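Running co-folding for adenosine-5'-diphosphate.
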Amino acid sequence: MIIQPETPLEKIFRLSPFQKKALAKMRLLKVSDLIRHFPTRYGEAGLVKSIEFLTAGEKAVIFGKISKLKLGKTFKSKVAISTAEVEDQTGKIKLIWFSQPYIAKMFSEGNLVRLEGKISEKNGELSILNPKIEKVNKIPEEISGSLFSGENNLNLSPIYPESRGISSNWIYHALQKVFRNGILENLKDPIPKNILEKYHLPSLKTAIIWIHSPRKKEDAEIARKRFAFEEIFLVQLDRQKERYLARKEKSFVIPEKNLEVKKFTKDFSFPLTSAQSKSIKTIFKDLQSGHPMSRLLEGDVGSGKTAVAATIAFATAKTTPINSKTDLPAEAGNLQIAYMAPTEILAEQQFESFIEYFSKHKLAIGLITGSGAKKFPSKTDKNKWTKISKPQLLKWVANGEIPILIGTHALIQKTVKFKNLALIIIDEQHRFGVKQRMQLRRKHDIAPHLLSMTATPIPRTLALTIFGDLDLSILDELPAGRQLPETKIALPHEREKVYEKVRNELRNGRQAFVVCPRINDPDPEKETAINARSVKSETERLQKKIFPEFKVSAITGKLKPAEKEQVMLDFKNKKADILVATSVVEVGVNIPNATVIIIENAERFGLAQLHQLRGRVLRSSFKPYCFVFTESKSTKTISRLKSFVNAKNGFELAEADLKQRGAGDLSGIKQWGISDLAMEALQNIKMVEAARTEAQTLIEKDFELKKYPLLAKHLAEKQVIHLE
Ligand code: ADP
Ligand code: MG
């Protein structure tokens, strides 16, 4: 049989429907998928034992010859019981399976097997209960030797990610088969040779051999490095293409309008931080190039991104579009801004903030969300907003009368048309996929500038990769007078003390958040195992038992939008002192008077999420407090929470997170579609920079990758996965 990378697996292997399903689930359809299904680890060095060295209580893997297979029933309950013995050169041990009568039929005397299970002891005799069993062709050499330890004996047999129906062993044998049929000779390397040589990376063929059957550990490592590079390189190519295209497009020129802008920022109730001024300057430079800006403004929670956005929006809204032929104002009406927020709560809140920032400047602002539309100022009261119909709002946006439109996803629907959209601002941008970002821009003839803002502290390597098409500005400075939060891991018996502290703050006129992982209590009949505090019962308990003298209110994602809005408004206006919430308050919610946050069952939140939550109380010059409760005693949880307590800012935390758990915890990581393998590589800034530089050079020289058809094909395939 001739096996090619494109050959479907079901043409080569006889598969049960169950196995087909499992393979599809693991995205293993073709031979090329299979050979790129990499081991997660190698060998069983620690686990593999000779029988004479087994001790009760440990988990072990043994290899040996099976004998004395018997099927019977337990005496009392008549449960099927299979028994057998396994023997290696050093001894014998008894095997027992309950309710697995087929075992005795599937194996026969003398079969060589691999067994995995926990060793138990009864009356001084060792046995393994319900071990996992698999036939093997031969017993690994090192094991039939004696001790199985030391460098040279390292067993480097690959262990693959499995799924029910497709075991690691199945994959191992499947790979053996495709290798025997000469697949390696048919592989073509997508990465240009000169790049591989420059960075001392192995060819595809070598890397495939090394990753699946390494002679030594280093071989496997360098092979992994190559595949990680390949993946990051592909992502970079994709991003650099976007960047290249964006640079070619035309955009409105937005002048800095020095005096007017200065006056605008003077009206703020605070002086800009130097980080804010610097970012504003850089952004204005972008806005005058005639080509679309693509910039990511990264700033820790509370660093004042809205003020930057408002300033840029102001200058834009004050600019009349220029006819490029005559250099004269093209028409009446000014340039427009779309401001997109990830949730309705945030859109509402930014609408309010913008009204405050723009109150003196007679600029109309619209709000559009899933649940309705608003406009500022109202006809009857120039200081207030008013509800209007969506069609009416959209009409005014389309004819250019409303220069600033704030909204949720509703903003990118087809029905929303602008007259002169010049600038798109995306708040908390990690919630939007790359493709959404592109779509938004492609919709228009004159490409709008794009300012993305995020408080999710993203390690630099990740930012360079995921947002490789964007330029980066960082607000690395908090407004003056902010106090560092006091963060404490609170033990269950310290609850009273914590509440006393909260009471103290409330008496001083401050407010508090209490965050719980769930909305309702579980149905005790159904979910006995899950034991976490709920918004519902905490609200009741805190109101009745702990803080009867204060007002406790609650918010969850389940409330209707209008109800949410009301709860937030009441909290802002201090009609409630404590707000019990789920993580709906995670991003961006701005209540400067709130100084304490309690996080219940903190083990259930990711580090980035905890950081965002703590950000809720870092918004004023009052001393902020954050108390995290956890019932978990796991050392991993405690060490995670400790790094949360100790990290000075989000960036430090993000780096720590990347080190501790390979970035899996950074929010939204899944949607970026980067594999665990590439994630490992993201700790290597040199590799990321190399991939970026090479991708940039290649795209500038050969945008369509005409000279590199294989690379182009891989890139296209990658994008298909992206879009799903
Ligand atoms: P984020 O960067 O998290 O979006 P915001 O823009 O919501 O932060 O700002 C947080 C708070 O800080 C707001 O109440 C805002 O008015 C205030 N603020 C912004 N810039 C400054 C500054 N330079 N000095 C003092 N307070 C500021
Ligand atoms: Mg914000």
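Result summary
The pocket of magnesium ion (ligand 2) is lined by residues 305-306, 427, 588 (CB under 6 Å).
The longest strand covers residues 59-73.
Job closed.
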